[in-house]
Amino acid sequence: MGARRSWFLTNGASQANRTAAIAVRGLGERVLIQRSSHSSFTDGMLLAGLVPAFIAPSIDERHGIAHGLTPAVLDEKLADEARAGRAVSSVYAVSPSYFGSVADVAGLAEVAHAHGAALIVDGAWGAHFGFHPELPESPARLGADLVVSSTHKLAGSLTQSAMLHLGRGSWPIALSLWSREPTR
Ligand SMILES: Cc1ncc(COP(=O)(O)O)c(C=O)c1O
């Protein structure tokens, strides 16, 4: 998976989303979240006391369905927020989308980091990513700082089993979570 560390969870990717929200609160209170996200991240924001701004995913007008964020749109929105004095500390994106489209996670990570924000990727529907060359790459290998994965959806496991992966970047979230690891 390319993760520096993985936490194996019960209570599903919902619990991973809540945990991710609490983790990024340590970086600052503002988070930019993709509008088409799972309600568990909203739970997490409320629990953590995060202040959200919302960003719309790209829309497939022909089929009337929402896909993901693009790096260009993210860049524009982060610049707008910063200009308005609301610079965010973290970005929350969903990939793959509910309809199976995969975002340019490497591009999103580059943009988020350039704006001083950590990137959380909700990859609930992509627990199998990165396990075969013909599948999309694991978001943890593409620069995401935290990756939410719902093992019991497409990977096949007992209901409620999920994972939260910590990326390998040099981002402070990695360091702050890593430094809390018990010494062995
Ligand atoms: C994008 C996304 N994230 C998180 C979740 C929560 O997953 P779980 O059922 O493992 O709690 C879902 C559930 O459908 C989801 O679609």
Question: Please, could you describe this protein's structure?
Answer:
The chain has 6 helices and 9 strands. 32% of the residues lie in helices and 21% in strands. α3 (71-83) packs parallel to α4 (105-114). The strands form 2 sheets. A 7-stranded mixed β-sheet has the order 1-9-8-7-6-2-3, sandwiched between helices. The mean pLDDT is 92. With 184 residues, it is of the alpha/beta class.
Small-molecule binders: pyridoxal-5'-phosphate
Order of helices and strands: EHEHEEEHEHEEHEH
Overall 3D geometry? globular
Give the CATH superfamily. Answer: Type I PLP-dependent aspartate aminotransferase-like (Major domain)
Name of the CATH first level: Alpha Beta
Strand count, sense and barrel status of the largest sheet are: 7 strands, mixed
Topology-level CATH name: Aspartate Aminotransferase, domain 2
Cα-to-Cα separation, first versus last residue: 23 Å
Mean pLDDT level: 92
The strands making up the biggest β-sheet line up spatially as 1-9-8-7-6-2-3
Query: Strand tally, please?
Result: 9
Beta content: 15-25%
Low-confidence stretches: none
Radius of gyration: 15 Å
User: Roughly how much helix do the residues carry, as a percent range?
Assistant: 25-40%
**Domain module count:** 1
Count of helical segments?
6
| Structural class by SSE content | alpha/beta
Oligomer: single chain
- Tell me what the CATH architecture is: 3-Layer(aba) Sandwich
